[in-house]
Amino acid sequence: MVKRFMKYGVAFLILSIIGVTYFQFNTQGIQYAIAVAEDNFKDVIVNDQKGTCTNQLVEEDIPERFTKVAENEQLELYLEEESVAIAVKDKCNGYTWFSYDVHRDMEADGYSQEMIRYIHSGISLVTYDGFTPGRRTVLDSNIEKTYQMMDNGFTVTLDFTAQQIKFDAVVTLQGGDLLFHIPQESVEEYNPDLWKPGNNNVSMNDLIIYPFFGSASHKDDGYMVIPDGAGAIVNLDETPKHAAGYSAPVYGRDMGYENSSSPSQRGLTTKPLENVSLPIFGVIHEVDKTGVLVISESGSSYATYNYRSRDTNTNYYQSYFAYNYRTAYSQFQSRVNEDQHVLGFQQKPNEFDLVQRYVFLNENEANYVGVAKKYRDLLEKKEGLTKNIDSSYNEIPLKIDFVNSEITMGTLGEESIPVTTYDQAKELSKTLLDKGYENLNVTFKTFIQNELTYKFGVSEGLGGQKDLEEAIQFFSANDITFNYYADYARSYFEKTRYSASKMNRQNLSVYNRQNNLLNYLNNPKYYTVLAEKDLDRFKKNKIDSLALGGFSGSLFTHYDSGTIGSSTEGMEYTKKVMEYLHDHGIRTSMYAPDAYLYRYIEEYFDAPIHSSGLMFIDETVPLVSLVLSGYKDMYSTYMNFSSNDIEAKLRLIEFGVYPSFVLTGESTYKLKGTVSNDIYVSEYSYLEDRIDAYYNFVNEGLGDVIGSEMINHTIVDHGIVIVEYSNGKEIVINYNDSDYLYGDVQIKAKGVVIL
Amino acid sequence: MSMYMKITLLLGIILIAIHPNSYVFAEAPYYTYTSDSQGTIIKTQTGYTPANQINVINGERLEMPEHVFVDDEDYIYISDSSHNKIYILDRNYRFYKELTSEKFTTVQSSFVTDQFIYVVDSSQNKIFLFDKLTHEYVREIGQPDSPIFNEGYSFSPTHIAVDVRGNMYVRSSGSVNGLIMLNREGEFITFFGANPLNVPLLDQVRSFFLTETQQRKLERVFPDVPSNIAIDDKGFIYTVTSSIETNPIKKFNVSGTNYFPDELVATHNMESVWIGKHNNVYSITSEGWIFEYESDGNLLFLFGGSDVNSSRFGLLSRPVSIAANSADELIVVDQGTKRIQTYQSTQFADAVHHAMGAYQAGDYTESKELWEYTMKYNSIFDNAHIGLGDAYLREGDPHRAYEEYFDAQYSEGISEAFWEIRQSWLEDNLNNVFSLLLVVVGVVSTHKFLNRKYRYGPRVRKRISVLKRIKMVDDLLYMFTFLKQPLNGIYEIQDKNRVARRSSTMIFILIAVIFILHHMYTNVLFVPKNEYILYELSIMMLLFVLWLVSNYLICSINDGEGSFTHVYNSTAYALSPIVIIMPLVILFSNGLTLEQSVFYHLPVQGMFIWGAFLLFFTIKDIHNYDVGETITVISKSVFTMLIIGLFLFVLYSLGNQMIEFLYDVVTEVSKRW
Asked: Do A273 and B533 touch (CB under 8 A)?
């Protein structure tokens, strides 16, 4: 009897486990499949201004080992066949850009042979030799280079015969642009025994594209434009301010390859670096004369931006992108013992078309403003970036986010706590309206207990359906822009059935430093599914605008039941959900969107006004603002948390960013122990004075340029900045502690003057 | 002067003091934390922002900066052991002078009084004194001429602090007896402020069994040696010990009593300690975390963190020393990057400091204004709420004080404010209370009178007794009879099946409900709010079931007469005091303050004793045991509970492993497809 029970018991146990696992992994039954649209980079020319420049630069002679392979009205392309190095001559100003410093005898400078090969080589391939990465250049032995010349450039097939890896590089001129292209289908690891047991595997890791293009050891009037945060510049001084390197993955780290990190025990952590949200960098050799903008146009989610100052590895300031085709990850063999793991590799390299565009800048475009504006041109011409600016207002907009509800651990388990009822939100908005802030932009943010994320939901505790309707009614009657906060990209605390897996098949968890909690990132294939589920309720509640959070930092390579999802596909899924929402009449604004999403946004929230405070930079510049100004309204991060109001206000004016605050109807104490535990002041009664001060000050500075585009930005003196707008207004900002005389205009210390 | 003007003025002073070349407006590269009144670390507004970096002084690049000291006039003394000199900067970080001497071999640190500059040379084990103004050599202090040092106790000074009388407290490497205290002549006085010896438990047990000779052969355990010292103007000596995690910072008075709390929020590797002008205490860890404490050891600000090759302005690599000047600017020596990094305090931190100062000085109105100002930047800063609560209390506004204290979960304050509120309520409502009492008395006597006259009592009772026909109600009401005559009650339950099992179950459920209510509605002074209790409750229920089962099992093999139903029922009724007393206590507790906590604790304890007493007699009488047998049975039952518990635990962990194993197999296989 007992035996029989045991037998059936065990059988039942096994069956139930199989059942549970089956359901766990096949909840939706959605296939991971999306076609990545072919990149139309060949149809677009960014620099199409023909003609000669007024400023002619001294022509540098191009060594004879470089042969001219293509020419058009704007550029000449030269090639050194042995190294795939190139030189590009800008006909407008006569300046020649080299992919390495051709005029120096590097051996005499004391570089090792290996280093010289790396500097000269146009493309370097980083491989995993077994488990260890190693760098190879096209000047190493056993590399077959087959050239095929074309009218506008050349194609070279690079075959690393010893490693059995080959790919094509296509370099072409297109107007004033140079295009570098590695077609996805040409990338081949043709070792038939690769990944077979006993084979000494050599596989692709990174490709480094022209790491010394535009490099310089010193330029009196030149700088690098770095896409860190809001944007930053580094002067090409003879002695670097701080000799250091900096690497930052474009659009954030690929968390699919990373190991899980758990929140720190005591909640202590340093701030993460600012995101690189623009896939660009710029090199200006002479301000207002010559420069180059480099855009990672396709494959940008696999690109890593790199900066090296001189006196670190070489004598040169460098900026370049490296592209990731494969990263080793820790494959754990035990769920208990973290030490027990081997390095795991994906079978096939990441699939993406690598397209990098070099836009040559001359005349008054050869500066960081030109870098931003040319990139904007690309977005406009290629992706159809449009202007979404309402310039009918006389006063600047003010953004208020309400945290409506959160969950916390109560006496009897998790409970939802109302923090701002619909009615309180309405009343607070009314108070602000009565103050004369007529251009309000309001967002509701509710944490949904069942879904473990911020989404739409009507809660009785907040006043129920009727109060919500009344609030929405009130907003539309008073011309208040109303958004609902939704995060389709992540959940908090625990994984859900939408969560993705890392490459090592663990849950895709990410440590959120902001609130010291774990996030589980959703599989991108569910984005649209989640939006579909919400759509009816949006319609029913007359919600026509979403404030989407979470899409920045959510591009990753991941494992999805047998296949590998790439971040390129992730981008495609993200675009798909945006299109889906637009097709159904939902406007979308976003928090800190990556550049590939700019065309889908109505408004830009959490606009960066800082860079990461890197020691080697000379100035922080409004690169993102210059790209989007006049096209999208930008709102700051919550100014509740600014520690230096005086300078933050000046910075908002300088960057053309409108202020934003987060408010709650109840005490901020209620947010303790919730997801919003990073908010430490949110009551209107405490913030009223500061909101007024921000609004009035920024309104004075930006009130005259609503709807206009920021067309120029110059740092004229230490702490003195002039910003020009398309309507002819000029804003002069003085950050210094003493008054400043600009022409015959006196600008007060920490003051602003509009001319 | 209005608040804003004060703040502006303050800011103005600070800004003037700052190096003119400091226009770097960047957000701090770190988050800033503080601790709430419960000691939990939470985020707060930035208290300090990075200001300046210095790596070249007077044309020389710093090579091995070791220590920084700031004197009363804000001159900054930076010791560099590689250049073997002390650089002196003025308050604007401009080079002022340098102190060199051919006597120096390894300049480790300095201490500056009104008269002298004390320079510690760590390779010569000497302290050199120089005249502060002329930099003339005065004398040197070497190893004291005292038996303990002559017998080989090493004198290797690295840091010193000097009190107003000129006594020196010397931190010496490897000095397990603590700081070495010397008088102004350099004669040894005593050891001071040693850390307690922490012998591992295993060693303690082992040494118990060993003979003295064997013990001597064992490796000796020494107390941790303090790493750095500081002294404040009241003569308190502060030590920091980097090798310990609990209480690394201690604040000693002359007699060696530590004034810092035992539950100090701190960490390993705290290297340096400095006393600010508000008697606030700064410390820094070698990982780059900067701590600031109030004078009584509460954490005020915590920020920083190590810089893993990201080269961010304001993060540190391997800091060794910290100091602050009178403008609350922090000066940190970072040996890792060979730099001096300075930080300036924000408006928020200034307001916090001044509010604390005003409060300590007894200026509650000003402190209130300043605390209110800090609320604009951080409204969940417990210190501010407590400060405001104190101010309101002094102003005679206990209601607002209560709210502030309640927000900060500050029990003493809540209690005090509540006392005031209750007092004034009683004063206002004493008349009403008495009138209410009179009315009640009146109603009762009228009822008695009328009842005597019209005899409606029995009729009403009859009406009500209809309810009694419901078994459950009747059974529950029996509780009172049971409690009045427990022995008789047990007899009735045993022999007459007086109560139904259902009713007992009801009592158990009621007890569980009361447990939850107790946590939700008892005065917050006695039971903290919002604590997750379901886990606790389920453990209690499990224990209870275990007890019932094991007690029943044990009794049935020990000639016990009761059936399981009897045990079940009588236990329920034995526990019924909880149902009767707890609701009253919960209600009553809300009118109590901390001073009257005895009125909360006494009934609760009485209730438990009563319950235990009843339980004992139910077991005894249900099974018809004598007292001795009962005690035996109870201990046996407890033992059985342990055994069953152990068995369940083994079963659970084995079963868990099996399920995990099966899960792994299935997952593995399914992922292969």
From this structure: no
Map tokens 């020691």 to a residue: A615
The whole-model pTM stands at 0.88
Task: State pLDDT tens for residues A494-540.
Answer: 999 999 999 988 899 999 888 888 999 999 999 999 999 999 999 99
B112 reaches A (C-beta below 8 A): no
Q: What is the structure's pLDDT at B475?
A: 83
Longest dimension (CA), chain B: 115
- Least CB–CB distance from A689: residue in B29, B376, B379: B376
- Band (B220; pLDDT cuts 50, 70, 90): low
Whole-angstrom Cα distance, residue B38 to residue B538? 26
> Coil, helix or strand for B508?
helix
Q: Is A408 in Cβ contact with B31 (below 8 Å)?
A: no
Which secondary structure element, helix H or strand E, spans residue B203, and what is its range? helix B201-209
- Burial (CB < 10 A; 0-12, 13-18, 19+), residue B216, is exposed
What are A155's strand-pairing partners?
Answer: A148, A170
Q: Which of A22, A687, A718 comes nearest B376 by C-beta?
A: A687
Residues of chain A with pLDDT under 50: none
Which residue among B530, B662, B671 places its CB closest to the CB of A411? B530
AA letter at B426:
L
Strands A398-410 and A658-663 come out as parallel
Residue A680 backbone phi and psi in degrees, to 5: -120, 5
Residues 403-432, chain A, touching B (beta carbon < 8 A)? 408-413
Beta bridge partner(s), residue A97: A88
Closest CB from A13, A680, A687 relative to B380: A680
Q: Please report the pLDDT score of residue B219 as a whole number.
A: 62
Token pair listed for A138: 């096209």
- In angstroms, rounded to a whole number, what is the distance separating the alpha carbons of residues B381 and B349? 12
Interface of B with A in 487-526 (CB under 8 A): 516, 519-520
The confidence score (pLDDT) of residue A25 equals: 53
Which residues 241-300 in chain B show a CB within 8 A of chain A? 289
Say yes or no for a CB contact (<8 Å) between B534 and A412.
yes
Token digits of residue A388: 């979404």
Contacts of the segment A472-480: beta carbons below 8 A, 24+ positions apart: A472/A541, A472/A542, A472/A543, A474/A426, A474/A429, A474/A430, A475/A426, A475/A429, A475/A442, A476/A542, A478/A429, A478/A433, A478/A440, A479/A438, A480/A429, A480/A433, A480/A440, A480/A441, A480/A442
| Nearest Cβ partner for A21 among B407, B519, B666 | B666
* B contacts of A335 (beta carbons < 8 Å): 660, 664
pLDDT digits (tens, 9 = 90+) for B252-310: 998 888 999 888 888 889 999 999 988 899 999 999 999 999 988 999 999 998 877 67
Report the residue of A403, A620, A680 to disrupt the B interface, i.e. the one with the largest count of B CBs within 10 Å. Answer: A680
If you measure CA to CA, which chain B residue comes closest to A610?
A: B26
Is the separation of the CB atoms in B127 and B141 below 8 Å? yes
Model confidence band, residue B17 (pLDDT cutoffs 50, 70, 90): very low
ipTM of the complex: 0.90
Nearest chain A residue (CA) to B15: A737
Please provide residue B292's backbone torsions phi and psi, each rounded to the nearest 5 degrees: -130, 130
Residues 6+ apart with CB under 8 A from B515: B533, B537, B540
